[in-house]
């Protein structure tokens, strides 16, 4: 069963290569969502699930979840509204790389 990234990071220490692979997964997810004209608005470690059924090969697959704060703007209309999601990916990447959260950031 999947667990959120916050809990997963409490018991795992990913390598820089793992963080890079996860960053690609998150950016791909956000790019897809934005391509559909949707802004997530809440990219945080608790809204990223780690699929533990795919632990081999490492790293496991990540899934962006909880679209409760998402806004549908229409295809091609995301523009600057998507900056918050990109910032969120950066904050999550910082957490994946350091294991430390900044509550005001996340």
UniProtKB/TrEMBL annotation:
The keyword Electron transport does not apply. Gene3D superfamilies: Transferase(Phosphotransferase) domain 1 (1.10.510.10). SUPFAM superfamilies: Protein kinase-like (PK-like). Keywords: ATP-binding, Kinase, Nucleotide-binding, Transferase. One of its GO terms (cellular component) is nucleus. GO terms for molecular function: ATP binding; protein kinase activity. Transmembrane segments: none annotated. Residues 1-106 form the Protein kinase domain. This is Protein kinase domain-containing protein. It comes from Eutreptiella gymnastica.
